[in-house]
Amino acid sequence: MAQNQQKSQKQKIEEQNQRIEDNLSKIDNRIVVFSGKGGVGKSTVAVNLSYALLNLKKKVGLLDADITGPNIPQMVGLEGKPDAMDENKILPMVKNGLRVISVAPMIPKNQPVIWRGPLRSGTIKQFIGDVVWEELDVLVSDLPPGTGDEVLTATQKLEPQMAIVVTTPQEVSLDNCRRAVNMARKLDIPKIGVVENMAGLICPNCGEEVDFFGKGGGKEMAEKMGVEYLGSVPMEKQNRECGDNGTPIVLEHENSASAKAFGEIAENVDEVLKK
Description:
The protein is an alpha/beta fold. Helices cover about 45% and strands about 20% of the residues.
């Protein structure tokens, strides 16, 4: 009986791997967004980059792989739960044309996700293989900070063409960003880019820009490490408000400095992927 159970478990793994392979064959480009530390605005970059790519007439999906800190639904204004077609088919939720999957709508509000590594990794595999992504030009995956199980599982299963490392200008963040770049290299991700977030604070009253955290550190680091510098995003009051209200700044304030920056970053990402 134990042998039959073991065989059944092995069969389930093989079937899931096949579903993952089938799904990935329909997705032209996979991008993972991660950072060496938390608090650098990684999810903000993932959300607004996804919508900026949509503005370039791409078919885009957004996978929230930060299982214990899933912020994406809040930031894009998702309500309700994803629908399941059957045991192995989950329909992504759609908001303003963006296909999204996250664990957040599936758990009680304000409840912590106290899951061990294998369960978190298993959820990511489900999101990759069981969600009906259909044909996509780009699938953006928002990973948790650091080098934990979710990061390794997502990168190994997604086989991404590109990693985007998010940093802020100050040296403490850049130090962690360097580690993240080297991690992406060890994981054999072909293309690596850096986005500098919070690069200058724009005063909401006078419009003057103040280098609150410094500026230009991300570009200098990318050049020294021989990776792509994709652009920088300033700090704006509207950016924080849009994240809280579920109205991404790329859609809500398209003429803002941040929205224009994300538009340029999306164009740069598109160019890098075409190389």
